[in-house]
Amino acid sequence: MSLDSSQVTDLFVIGGGINGCGIARDAAGRGLKVTLAEMNDLASATSSASTKLFHGGLRYLEFFEFRLVREALIERETLLRAMPHISWPMRFVLPYHPDMRFDSETPTSRLLSTVMPWMRGRRPAWLIRLGLFLYDNLGGRKILPGTSSLNLRSAPEGTALQDKFETAYEYSDCWVEDSRLVVLNARDAEARGAKIMARTEVLSAKRVNDLWQVTIRDRESGKTEVIFAKMLINAGGPWVGDIIQTKIHVNSREGVRLVRGSHIVTPRLFDHDKCYFFQGEDGRIIFAIPYEQDFTLIGTTDQDHSDPFEPPVCTEVEQDYLCAFASKYFKKPVTRADVVWTYSGVRPLYDDGASSATAATRDYTLKVDAAGGAPVLNVFGGKITTYRRLAESALEKVGEHFPDLAGPWTAGVPLPGGDFPVDGVPNLIRQVLADYPFLTEFWARRLIRAFGTEVWDLLGPAKTHTDLGEEFGATLTEVELLWLMEKEYACTADDVVWRRNKLGLRLSPEQIGRIDDWMAQRMSDIRAHRAV
Question: How far does the chain reach from its first CA to its final CA, in angstroms?
Fold first, then answer.
């Protein structure tokens, strides 16, 4: 078989979640020819169902995962600089009460029970303060403020909490718009030469003459195509194991443990912009986070999930669990009647044999199989905070097979729309309101938080809101829909109102149906034009 260079890609990436798109961006920026296929919409699974946090993982310190925590803490500030529109600092309030008891069997609790048996079942204040001291100093903070104490009797953060909570610790982590992070990585990868194919299923891949022969199918048209690649990247997330077994047929001793994390969204439960970190008697923790200006996000659970093809849902049991957990802290109980939306995702954790889903490692493992000829890199585990470092680690392994590969470059390089200072959002909002005075404060903030400095490209020469075309509700217009379809791979209303933004919380089913109809007609027109 004779192939010229135009028929062969260097890397073929399976999976359009954060790991796949992050690897594609890094590789394309180093000069590799990259093709990526995602069977659904980008970020349609795990990467749009996170708790929306860039965080070091305070509770991972109890499992002695110091390397993972340090790497994640360093990454927080690296990522803040690269995407200040979709990520921002947030203060976390951790209420404390001396009568708290915990049953968690973490390495820290076992050690404490051995050394101080009278402390069994407790997480004392000094231990929390020690953990926060490590959290403040492991990552070398430069932007984020350190830990402080709060008197909940006088501080506004105590108003929504039960009176028994008198003291809290306040520390720093960061918020991130997870699915937008994926799309922006894909866009930047494409701008650097990668080919991004959403809604494209990998049917099979086999080694042929030191290349991977990959058969793909466009899920919209049904058309199949064969692509040849020098190396395969399996970043299939929850489907990484299925891809190994049924698509590429390689032997692997590593496995993935699927853990479902569910969340609930309620109307706003408190009047400040800080997040609560609640500790439970079962050793779990949950967050209560300001969400989309008018809501509160509560999560997450940890439940084993057996089948990647079974769509994850937040069960009634999980909803009750989250409501009851939050109600142990808030003065006003949270009930199922308060829940306006739920979502759930499956975390593809590396299977380290942990006894529980909570204890399973959040670290990542990268394994290369080159025994049969052309190499494949299988990606296990990982967390959204360390996606960029995971990509760099993946490219180190890729470099063993591409000896002239350039070095790391992504640290500090902004994603599309992120070329402004970390504290620059208020100035951008003021500027866009001055340039487009027909926008409301809510509208301007939403656009800046989604598109950053690209807002001016999106709105163009518009003088009034009517210049933006049809209005679909909740500040979504025809101009923005066209942008999302032409530049951000959106094809359906769900892509738009639940992944590119969260306007589904504010739109009626009829409005969402109108968006779907409009987009379907637009796609039909585009296909007809291409046919001509």
Answer: 34
With CA atoms as reference, report the closest residue to 215 among 248, 252, 181.
248
CB 346 within 8 A of CB 305: yes
Give pairs for 393-398: CB < 8 Å, separation 24+: 393/364, 393/366, 394/23, 394/26, 394/233, 394/366, 395/23, 395/26, 395/27, 395/30, 397/366, 397/368, 398/11, 398/27, 398/32, 398/231, 398/233
The whole-angstrom separation of Cα 99 and Cα 117 is: 17
How many other CB atoms sit within 10 Å of the CB of residue 359?
17
Q: How far apart are CA 417 and CA 288, in angstroms?
A: 28
Residue pair 244/252 in contact by the 8 Å Cβ criterion: yes
The answer to whether 464 touches 436, Cβ cutoff 8 Å, is no
Report yes or no: 199 and 40 within 8 Å, Cβ to Cβ.
Answer: yes
Alpha-carbon distances, residue 153 vs 109, 279, 289, 358 (angstroms): 30, 20, 21, 33
SS (H, E, C) 403-460: CCCCCCCCCCCCCCCCCCCCCCHHHHHHHHHHHCCCCCHHHHHHHHHHHHHHHHHHHC
Grade residue 119 by pLDDT with cuts at 50, 70 and 90. low
Residues 25-57: pLDDT tens digits? 999 999 999 999 999 999 999 999 999 998 877
Q: Which pTM value belongs to this model?
A: 0.93
- pLDDT digit string, tens, across residues 441-500: 999 999 999 999 999 999 999 999 999 999 999 999 999 999 999 999 999 999 999 999
Distance CA 21, CA 154 (A): 46
Closest CA to 17 of 237, 325, 210: 237
pLDDT digits (tens, 9 = 90+) for 323-359: 999 999 999 999 999 999 999 999 888 776 554 555 5
Select from 324, 298, 323, 301 the least CA-distant residue to 313: 301
User: At 518, phi and psi to the nearest 5?
Assistant: -65, -45
**478-515 per-residue burial string, b: 16 or more CB within 10 A, e: under 16:** ebbbbbbbebbbbbbbbbbbbbbbbbbbbbeeebbebb
| pLDDT classification of 212: cutoffs 50, 70, 90 | very high
The Cα–Cα gap between 21 and 388 comes to 10
Amino acid 135: pLDDT: 81
Q: Give residue 384's Cα distance to chain centre.
A: 5
Position 532 confidence tier, pLDDT thresholds 50, 70, 90:
very low
So what's the pLDDT on residue 450? 98
